[in-house]
Amino acid sequence: MKGHHDLIHDFCWSSDDNVLLSGSADGSVKVWNVMKKDQEIPNKFGHNTNDDVFFIANLFHPSYVYACTFF
Questions:
Q1: Model confidence pLDDT, tens digit, residues 9-62
Q2: What's the pLDDT at 3?
Q3: pTM here?
Q4: Which of 19, 21, 26, 71 gives 5 a disulfide partner, CB atoms 3.0 to 4.6 angstroms apart?
């Protein structure tokens, strides 16, 4: 999955393993819906067009994001 423009410091899975958070040094947390992971999608997570399928939201922070979690 593409999207971050700097190092990714942390990943966090939801308790049901359907949503993934990724926190990055680019000052953002991206929210990914991986509930569709069992569908026939080209190359699964390795294909750039899959970002349109899996991407939910972009959460911005004024500085680096070193950790992310569900609350």
A1: 999 999 999 999 999 999 999 999 888 655 655 555 555 555 667 788 888 999
A2: 75
A3: 0.75
A4: 26
Residue 31 belongs to domain spanning: 8-60
For residue 30, which phi and psi values (nearest 5 degrees)?
Answer: -105, 140
**DSSP-assigned letters across all residues of 1-69:** ----SS-EEEEEE-TTSSEEEEEETTSEEEEEE-GGGGS--TTGGGSTTHHHHHEEEEEE-SS------
Q: Is 34 within a domain? A: yes
Taking alpha carbons only, the member of 67, 32, 68 closest to residue 53 is 32
Tokens of 71: 């609350």
Structural domains of the chain, count: 1
